[in-house]
Amino acid sequence: xxxxxxxxxxxxxxxxxxxxxxxxxxxxxxxxxxxxxxxxxxxxxxxxxxxxxxxxxxxxxxxxxxxxxxxxxxxxxxxxxxxxxxxxxxxxxxxxxxxxxxxxxxxxxxxxxxxxxxxxxxxxxxxxxxxxxxxxxxxxxxxxxxxxxxxxxxxxxxxxxxxxxxxxxxxxxxxxxxxxxxxxxxxxxxxxxxxxxxxxxxxxxxxxxxxxxxxxxxxxxxxxxxxxxxxxxxxxxxxxxxxxxxxxxxxxxxxxxxxxxxxxxxxxxxxxxxxxxxxxxxxxxxxxxxxxxxxxxxxxxxxxxxxxxxxxxxxxxxxxxxxxxxxxxxxxxxxxxxxxxxxxxxxxxxxxxxxx
Length: 356
Ligand code: NAD
Fold this sequence. Notes:
Helix content is 44%, strand content 15%. The chain is built from 14 helices and 12 strands.
């Protein structure tokens, strides 16, 4: 399985492959950068058609975590763990313990938490054998609510930039996905006077939103094209393609889902139509911002001076505003500008030689 040749390999510092014959565990941990601090990133438990795709995912997602933490101003690097396999078939206590023992081995450089295919209960199980996990039920728990709060702060920056106002009164907003984050976003936007259009593959969530928020229901295939001011992808990645970008009526795309742009060309297509895009790893950083205390409390870690959580979440507004400002000054898309700014922060820290 080629690592160096992967199209996702991009100056990663370390890639670890772990296996445990007794439990069938096979896992990849990619550490993109520790320039700003020990790497952090969730564990994804997922079946892949072939192993190369698992490696590619680990490489791509760990880099995104580096950028996310850098732009959130956190003293953390980026990493990601992938446990390869179908969780409903493979996941059990001995396997999670075997995985945890490996995480413990690299805990000086990497700590992990929940992601797709892993629950807070699973994280608790991993925590039984290593302190290098965040988001346990006794700790910071589910980060989704903080992600939702951060998304709302970011959305105000989008409103300011594109609509010259920062309130939501009467603003029409389509939300794709009413899960942990999307529901929290919908609740807050409804309270702030927005008019919602919602879609989810779970009909019961859509019905609940119609009843509680007076939302309009949309079909899942067409929600991106709804006649609204803002489209918020809060379900899946890869939702913006060159084609779907051409169908969007909203003037802004800003949501919680990771990796919303299927390709760089999809971002260019939005820009050509003057649709403002909020880079996802900037607007959805609330979860990792809220988990910093847990990460800082791990053995051997230095506890940074932290302001109140509410202020750190609110800072997402200013961060996005400065990305939008620089992108219009430089004539680049917001996602390209965000990447440039993240790389500048990582490179500067790397040159100071402060790696763990
Ligand atoms: P979730 O699983 O709780 O919710 C996802 C929702 O999307 C579910 O209600 C699901 O039924 C719905 N959905 C799935 N496919 C759909 C489709 N085709 N059309 C419409 N709805 C569909 O997940 P979440 O924690 O709310 O996360 C949502 C997104 O935000 C994910 O992309 C996740 O990676 C990202 N994210 C989450 C956090 C967090 O703190 N939870 C942090 C950063 C990024």
